Amino acid sequence: MSSRFDSAPDRRNSGSMKWDEEPDVLPLWVADMDFRTAPCVIEALKRRVDHGVFGYTHVRPEFYQALQWWFETYHRMPIRREEVMYVPGVVPALSAIVKALTKPGEGVIVQTPVYNCFFSSIRNNGCRIVESPLRRIDLSASEFTYEMDYEDLEVKASDPDTRLLLLCNPHNPAGRAWRREELERLSEICRRHGVQVISDEIHCDLTMPGFHYVPFSTVDSEAIVCLSPSKAFNTAGLQIAAIICPDEERRRLIDRAININEVCDVNPFGVEGLIAAYSPQGHEWLEELRSYLSENYEVMREFLRKELPQVAVTKLEATYLPWIDVRAFGLTADELEEKLLKEAKVWLNSGSMYGSEGYLRINIACPRSRLLEGLKRIAQCLR
To answer: Do 267 and 298 contact (CB within 8 A), yes or no?
Structure first.
């Protein structure tokens, strides 16, 4: 049975970071889907364009209402209007929060391997990166997962100069949808040592069948959470996100950090896109997408099992970014990324950028025929 996701527009020569970076290369790297966004989002943006005036813009009440409705309806996450702060993206949000709540030289914990912008948001604000590596658990010869190392986390959090922990929930690139009891244990350690948790939950709507996203704010009432429809609805270019911060004084500090360079004016298209995405129509489209991504993941697993049995892959609980163990080939991740780019004309992400050697990250959010073409090129190159 055909799917709307079996085809995708030609993105070359559109200014796409993913497609215009390298000519004649099949890009399966950056976390950017090849699919058109939900029809309800496209229609909302068309209506805004038809208005024809694009002056200075306030955040409309409907922005807050849509955000509250979506997270209360689908994730049982209550959000109070006064807790919500508009930001142009989750990465700027993380950087502003680190700037607001730390002093240069203080430590910020990350659980590696982890999203590379966690490192830059810490480093660019003069803070120390404190790694608490996740513990790999082998499930079979071809599949593995990760768990938090609570003993190590206890040691790292006990340093009086450690102020924050940046949590990736769900986790990129480990592919974990953290269970409530895991988050509760992390929260207890951080509370005991006075470490504030900042949770990046941008992948929250992209769980696999049988797995569920647990909002960290439902575990820790003091948590600061960053949210956006950009990953689930492929709207990164609209530059829209929200910080949920329950503490008034911390909101004041974060607001100052966000606006210190006067670069946080409201993007009207981002506001309209979020309102349209966080709707019943958006949810209907999202359910179709999640089903398609799950099927792509199973296709990839079966292909690797048959054609490249020497590799192992994460048990993917969330995101569309499987994490592949390629240590069997005897090359560094950077060398393997370069080899695939030059010889197979396929671009994957090296695990070194996430703080872990010997792994590659692949993006499966593309038409199935395109994914299979990329996998065939990879297998032919590495056999």
So the answer is: no
**Cα dihedral sign, 351-330-27-306:** negative
User: ω into residue 173 within 30 of 0, thus cis?
Assistant: yes
What is the distance, to the nearest Å, from the Cα of residue 344 to the centroid of all Cα atoms in its chain?
27
DSSP state of 83: G
Cβ neighbours of 197 (radius 10 Å)? 24
Q: Are 294 and 209 in contact (CB under 8 A)?
A: yes
Nearest-10 crossing angle of helices 268-277, 280-307: 80
Regarding beta strands 135-138 and 128-131, do their DSSP bridges make them parallel or antiparallel, or are they unpaired?
A: unpaired
SS3 label, residue 82: helix
Neighbouring residues of 116: CB distance < 8 A, sequence distance ≥ 6: 353, 354
Q: How many CB atoms lie within 10 A of CB 240?
A: 28
My answer on whether omega of the bond before 170 falls inside 30° of 0, hence cis, is yes
Residue range 225-277, pLDDT digits in tens: 999 999 999 999 999 999 999 999 999 999 999 998 777 789 999 999 999 99
Question: 3-class SS at 114?
Answer: coil
Burial of 58 (0-12, 13-18, 19+ CB in 10 A): exposed
Assign a CATH topology to domain 53-279.
Aspartate Aminotransferase; domain 2 (3.40.640)
The 10s digit of each residue's pLDDT in 42-101 is 999 999 999 999 999 999 999 999 999 999 999 999 999 999 999 999 999 999 999 999
Measured between alpha carbons, how far is 181 from 46 in angstroms, rounded to an integer? 44
Alpha-carbon span 316 to 174, nearest angstrom: 8
- Which candidate, 195, 199, 207, places its Cα nearest to that of 75? 207
The phi, psi pair for 329, rounded to 5°, reads -85, -5
Domain positions in the chain? 4-39+281-382, 53-279
Cis peptide before 309 (omega within 30 of 0): no
Let me know if the fold of 4-39+281-382 is the same as that of 53-279: no
311 phi and psi, to 5 degrees? Answer: -100, 155
Residues 4-39+281-382, CATH architecture: Alpha-Beta Complex (3.90)
From residue 79, alpha-carbon distances to 26, 246, 335, 338, 375 in Å are 41, 9, 45, 45, 42
Q: Which residues pair with 108 in a beta bridge?
A: 129, 164
